[in-house]
Structures are given as structure tokens and as C-alpha cells.
Amino acid sequence: MGKMVLAVFFGLVIIVGMTSASLAHHAGGVEVGDLETGSVVGTPFKELPVDAEIQAIEIGNVKAWYPPTTVVDFKSRTGRPVVLKVTNTTSAEHGFFMTADAAFEAPSVLKIKLVLKPGETKYIGIPTSDLFYATTGSTFIYNCHLHPAHVGGKFVALGR
Ligand SMILES: [Cu+2]
Known about the structure:
Immunoglobulin-like, 2 helices, single chain, binds copper (II) ion, 5-stranded mixed sheet
């Protein structure tokens, strides 16, 4: 009987844990994860098209996020979240930091920050509401918060 109660107790703990995880899920917001396990606003990354791929590259001594400009066209778009695939192709750790262009910065500004190990790929899901709430403009900048000399780029939300 004692064992039975214990089993039920553990069962409840697991259910409570799952509920809070799924609540966090449906609350929306920017999500960073892997293709196989990650999701944004409840939709797995593998079911969403990738809007842009951004890579940390090294040419000689120059470190850069490539391409220098990423454009996503919102004119003919449904409300699905924006999905960015970021890959570190180099042999050192690099940071990906994306935020609204300072000139258009709103009080509750969108800030995405992650660190990629050498060779690592991550998916970033951004609900369109988060993207547009973040700024009155349509330009975001991305750079590496680990290396000041690491050349960054610009994300343009076209036609919003
Ligand atoms: Cu870097």
C-alpha cells in the first residue's frame, strides 16, 4: 500500500511538471531550440519553414555573421512565426545577439541572446507579434556579444 501511494505521488509530480512546461509554451514569446525538439508558440520547428539562415564565419582573422543583411518579406505572409537558423561554422564559440536597431528602440525591446559552440546549429522562433511589438521601425541588428570585433549584420522586416 505504501508503495502504491508513493507511485501516485511521483505520478502527480510529473504531471504538474509537464503542465507548467506546456503553460510556458503557450504563453508565446521567442524560443531558441534544436530542430528535433524545439518549438515556437506550440508548433515544432520541423513543421515551420526556415525564413533565413545566418552563419558565423571566419575569413582569415575576420569573424562575421553572414549574410550582412537578412530580409524577410512580410507583405504576402501569414501570421506564422519567423524562424531563423543560426549556425556556427567556426572552431571557436560565438554569440548571437539580435535586438531592435537602437534608433527605433521601444521600451520593451526584443532581445535574443545565445552562445553557439563550434559547429552548433540552433533554431530561433519569433512570434510576429513579438517582432513588431519590439520596435516602431523594421530593422534589427545582430552581432556577437562575445567579440566586439566580430562583424554583425542587419535583419530587415520588409513591408510590415
Ligand atoms: Cu564572435
